[in-house]
Amino acid sequence: MRALRYLALGTRLLATAVLALPFAAPAHAITSSAAAALTPRDNDNALDVHAVRRELDSFQAAQISLRKAMAIAEALHSGAITADISFDGASLPAVYRVKTMQQDRIWHHAIDAATGEVVGGEAASPLTSLGAEDRGNLVVLRALRHRLSDAVRVAERSTSGKAISGGLMRERGKLNFVIVVLAGSDLKEVILEPPGARRR
After folding, report:
1. Could you count the other beta carbons within 10 Å of the beta carbon of residue 127?
2. Where are the domains of the chain?
3. Each residue of 116-143: pLDDT tens digit?
4. Of the CATH numbers 3.10.450.40, 1.10.150.120, 3.30.300.180, 3.40.50.970, which one belongs to the domain with range 2-193?
5. Which of 36, 39, 145, 176 is spaced 20 to 30 Å from 52 by Cα?
6. In the chain, helix, strand, coil percent, each to 5?
7. How buried is 108 (Cβ within 10 angstroms: 0-12 exposed, 13-18 middle, 19+ buried)?
């Protein structure tokens, strides 16, 4: 899923819907076929489309939703909130990779997509180990009323799909939630700006 997530968040070849919290309907949504979006553009940037298709098939077979995986990871540490989550169908078993923030620590968890169990223990790193921009984004996230789980709910409802990844992105000074949703055979990227994020 790392390749898919890079494609979705880095090069923005996937469909985009821009929303404003609190939770309005999409201002516009452009759908594109996942197969068309994932077709390699050149040899240097080639993606194995078959591997991506297998990853998406694995995601569709998952018994645990992305929102449920977030709730499981957050429940492991009192007061933890999710900063980033993505589906990893290449691992055995398929897992959600979740980063949660609790006070001055970032926790890394793998949640089994079939059972909801924590796989392979957990790892923590101090917030100070992150770069200044990432630390600043997490400070803003902590202060926001809306959480990543709220953004996932809105993205799924507005696209009639299932979220496959979600996280934070700062662009032109604005902190946004970015959710990638699988709706039918289409991948859609939904960007939501939480109220108050621009001013921080």
Report:
1. 15
2. 2-193
3. 999 988 888 888 888 888 888 888 888 8
4. 3.10.450.40
5. 176
6. 30, 35, 35
7. middle
Lowest mean pLDDT among 29-38, 124-133, 140-149, 169-178: 29-38
What is the C-alpha to C-alpha distance for residues 131 and 146, in angstroms, rounded to an integer?
24
Q: Are 192 and 152 in contact (CB under 8 A)?
A: no
Q: Look at residue 179 and give its three-state secondary structure.
A: strand
Encoding tokens for residue 29?
């949504």
Say how far apart CA 58 and CA 76 lie, in whole Å. Answer: 25
Instruction: Give alpha helix (H) positions in 76-147.
Output: 132-143
